[in-house]
Structures are given as structure tokens and as C-alpha cells.
Amino acid sequence: xxxxxxxxxxxxxxxxxxxxxxxxxxxxxxxxxxxxxxxxxxxxxxxxxxxxxxxxxxxxxxxxxxxxxxxxxxxxxxxxxxxxxxxxxxxxxxxxxxxxx
Length: 101
Known about the structure:
The chain is of the alpha+beta class. Helices cover about 45% and strands about 10% of the residues. Strands 1-2 form a two-stranded parallel sheet.
């Protein structure tokens, strides 16, 4: 793939805003969860042609981080996103079983 094609690839990281506002998480902990989610998604989809292209030039990787309320991150909306996006990974670390990213 050309550099122009690769530059158009974007990884979206969607985080829960309530972790900071209502639950009082430190910003570092929220950033760590976003990093875990991003790394896990890249690993899970490592054989996908777009993931390979995205990671071929580490200096040109593009991410967009969005904040949503807790209500948006539910099974119904995740199902909708799976239908619309090529690859989707919902980060739910154990033992909490709580969706973070």
C-alpha cells in the first residue's frame, strides 16, 4: 500500500467519560486503559490487511480518541458498531468485567 493509503487509516479509541467525571478515576488510569485497548485491538487484528498497513509505518499511525457516556457503551450499540466498522474490539479486562474502551 502507498503511504497515502496508509495515512487514511485511523484507529478510533472510545473511552467512557464517566470514569473521570462520576467515578473519579485519575487521568493516568484512563489513559492506561485506552493504551491497553489500543494494543489489544492491534494484536487481535494483527493479520488483517488494514492493521498490517497501519503498523507498517509507525511514524504515521493516526488515532482519534472519543469520549462517550456509560449509556452509549452497551451491547446494543456495540452490535451496531460491529455492523458498521471493519474491526471492533471492546476492552473488558478481568476481573472487573466492566467495559472501559
